[in-house]
Amino acid sequence: ATKFARRVGDLEASSIFRINAKAQALKTEGRRIFRLDAGDPDFETPGAVKAAGQRAIEQGYSHYTPIGGLPELKDAVIGKFERDNGLRYREDEVMVTCGAKQALFNLCMSVLHPGDEVVIPQPYWGSYPAIAKICWATPVYLETSIEQGFMPSPEALAEVMSERTRLVILNSPSNPSGQVISKQALEALGKVLERYPDVFIATDDIYEHLRWDGNQYYNIVNACPALRDRTVVINGVSKAYAMTGWRVGFCGGAADVVYQMNKLQGQSTAHTAAVSQVAAAAALNGDQQCVRDMVNAYQRRHQLVQTGLATIDAIDYLPAQGTFYCLPDFSRIIDRLEGVDDDQQLADWLLDHLGIAMIPGSAFGAPGHLRLSYATSDEDIEEALERLNRAFG
Ligand code: PLP
């Protein structure tokens, strides 16, 4: 037997972590580094939310809460689902987690058997396949391309579904592509999923509010209400309210699956910090202008990225409709750079030669691409794009 369990032995160390660490190290050496690698808003948590957290400390929120979350936060979550998503959940159909990530973890641990298949559209957030593997399930990728707008097609979905499929994960707007799945596309995917009554669906809506496509938000349950009771709607406060470090996520789904997820969480983290839960309730119930202000900034910065990339012919690029990422195709740059054979080496080259940090697309199932984050200052974005233009324009 090996020293460590196979579930961790098989996990690959994330190249996100590697690039983050290298960028930080170069910065510490005194080099000017453009952090287009961040997965974290560069804004502060809104003042009213911080104040609610501070009050919670004073008011003695220093004790265990119910596993599924404080009643006032669960009410805020139920209110949010109804207000923003038109979805009605009872108190036993929602739960609070340590970030959206734990909602996904709880779900996977609750429904996956060893050998089950988890269908994941490409490009994807790397935690989807990683968590599936921890559960001894097999990720099965649904391929998309920049030409088809990174959109999962119903035909491709039908092709990868099998009798072993147990879970399908959807994420819109998408980390890393910034693309939104349209209502029509969701309806078409829903029609396929309706043919598989034993399959669960996770819709990861964490970037729901970070959008500038001008449309109302739709997830798979909105598009296909018949799927409600086998879909877990995952969301949280991390991205919309710049609250990544508070660790509050939440989800809604049928009472039976939420019950299992509660049992599991009760034996792991139990729950996220009480103080964080009070702050998250303030975020969900409070004035939403803070979210609009941050979205306006992301949209403006995205415009800077778009303008900058347009000057570089060798980089193919699909404008994002949301998030604070996009996923330009650098394959032609890789082809022409001496000593650079793939996106991993290109990410290192860009850091070493231009001081620009971006995450290799292969971490998201998109080799040849780089994830460019614009959760950083306008000035840094403009200067980084200038440097790219001077090198490759
Ligand atoms: N889902 C996606 C697609 C993400 O990109 C992230 C964070 O990067 C998360 C979930 C995790 O969010 P949380 O901080 O709520 O765990």
Automatic annotation (TrEMBL):
GO terms assigned for molecular function: pyridoxal phosphate binding; transaminase activity
The keyword Transferase is annotated on this UniProt entry: yes
Domain Aminotransferase class I/classII large: 33-388
Protein name: Aminotransferase
EC number: 2.6.1.-
Organism: Marinobacter vulgaris
Keywords: Aminotransferase, Pyridoxal phosphate, Transferase
GO biological process entries: amino acid metabolic process
Enzyme class: transferase
Family: Belongs to the class-I pyridoxal-phosphate-dependent aminotransferase family.
Swiss-Prot/TrEMBL cofactor(s): pyridoxal 5'-phosphate
